[in-house]
Amino acid sequence: MKKMKKTLAAILAAAMTLSLAACGGKEPENVPKQDTPSAESPTPAPSEPENEEKNPVTIQFMHSMVQEERQQAIQGLIDKFEEEYSWITVEQVPTDGESTYDTKLTAFAGGGMPAVIEVNQNRAKWLVGNELADLSAIREVIEAKPGEYYDAILKINTTEDGQDFIGVPVGGWVQGIWYNKTAFDEKGLAAPDTWENILAAAKAFHDPDNKKYGIALPTVDGAFSEQSFSQFALSVGANALNADGEADFNSDKMIEALTFYKELYQYSIQGSNGTTEVKDALLNGSVPMGIYSTYILKDLINEGMMDDFGFALVTKETSASYGSVGMLSVSDGLSDEEREAAILFVKFLVETENNVAWLHMAPGGQQPVMPAVASDPAYLDNEIIKGFEALSPEISAAFGSISLFGIVDGRNFVSMGNVTSSNVISRAIYDLTVNDKDPAEVAAETQKQIEDLISQ
Amino acid sequence: MNRKKEMTAGFLFIAPSILLIVLLIGYPMIYNFIISFHKVPVNPKKPMQFVNFGNFTKTLADPSFYKALGVTVFFTLLVVFLSTAVGLAVAILLNRRFFGKKIVKALILLPYIVPSVSLIFAWKYMFNNTYGIVNYLFVDVLGLFERAPLWFDRPASAFVLVTLFCVWKFFPYAFMSFYAILQTIDRTLYEAADVDGANGWQKFKVITLQEIKPVLATVVTLRTIWVFYMYTEVALLSGQVKTISVYLYENAFSMRDMGKAAAISILLFAIIFSFIMLVRKKVFKYE
A408 to chain B, minimum CA–CA distance in Å? Predict the structure, then answer.
């Protein structure tokens, strides 16, 4: 009896321990169920819904808009869509945060991907690289809108062979240097556009004894640092990959960019600087400049600081801005009905009127990716958007200067998606700055890691 | 004969629970075991590739694995010991009547019931380089440092802070468990000890410790398992405390090497299971 008790106790303890051990890969709570793969099929034109002839179909839409008001706005769009296509039901799968999103996406990839997924270009590349995106469905939506996207957006959006698109763009944001024009004018400094001007300004403003720093430089062990550093690297002609798609992080140009970034860090707020630290520093006046995206516009307007601030692009041999294009991806392996519903839903979301509603969820942050939307009176009729009208030329120029790691000579290498999501470049920047590592050593280590990732 | 029937009935009663455990835990366990021998593609339509013990040898040959394991063992020992000791000390201290006891108990439970994420951000703000209250006190008021230390960016200070945070956050669990059992101890035992001239330590060792031993074993066992695999608090507070759960997460979701991640979880299971069995057999021999 005692032996049996002990055995039972051991079995239960084993089960409990291993189940906790498996917690690192916890299953998502609401994994949507979808049918097995089927052949691609063309989708009927969305203009004539044939409600009575269709079988009901439900699709999931995974997006990162977790804020309640944004979920309501998306629900408004879904309600409107369902009214038009009454046989289709769309369920939202809002998912928070950078790492949570990747975790969930990875778990979904194991089975039951949502039909439509909102992704940035890195995640889109990852989906394409793992053959999880339905490229023909994506092409069908984009080809329905010929010539309607900005060229710079399509450059980011093509597949490696240039034949397809990695997602359907719905909005985008750019990142560059935000600087306090008034403070710069007072010190008689030039706008922080070239490397030399940025460094000179950082030195001039740096006064740590009085809690004033030259710049808020992203250094966090997360995607933000890669985005920020990529502008310096690409502006001097260094890229993470070469024209053959091989790792190229150990080049002289890259070491030059790393060395400059490290030098600039001497005049930055110290430590691990993520989006919160950089934005707080810009808004509370402890720095006169910092690297951030257009998502800061709303805060600058709300704080009444918009008139004081300017926006500059990092320039050395060329100008480079980081940009992220918000895209919609259609999952591979859907049933015919789900695929058709997904395509209709994505087409619906990029119609001008609906795209305006989408962009107004984060006015200023997400910028239009289609000229027709940018000039649409309904889009412009927004207090925040009116608030930064004066900066519109600079922001448009930034879209034209978007350069990204992994796009070389017009080829958009999807393997860069794996490199970015692995965080090796961000970790390199953290080590370079916060951990005071040598640029050449960082470059060599990162080169090896990128080589390993690509060989996988 | 009757005893056999009772046993059968007993097993029948617990059968639904066992069935549930087999379905909900058994399947993931077995699947986890299977994929630990495979290279697992992200796309489920692509076939898994059998790699034999490749994932295990890759893990065991990785110095980062041992480093993470060492950090985790040290971290677990510290957090479990300190949170249990503080929980027990506070429970003993509060196991008497005094004015405002309910408020004190509520305050003690506060860190345990507030969501971790809120507390983590509060701590990060407290230690922020430019506007954190801690640096304000240490640098501006007391002048202990010339510049604000990078608390969460230096491995040693990050380790200390993450440990402190976890002790502070989780000691109320030990407190609640000990407080409940302390209230069941017969007061006459202490009175008899007083008559015999026992001092405080002797009363604690001979009466309190013996009476709370079953609860102590449960608290230590559960807390060891939880702390060993703790991810959220460790990862969100600082990227510099590389515990085994962070190592596992990076392999599974950053490097997306599910086969290796599964192999790591099997190895961890073997380690923690052996440890728990050893502790229960050698330290808590109360059966």
Answer: 24
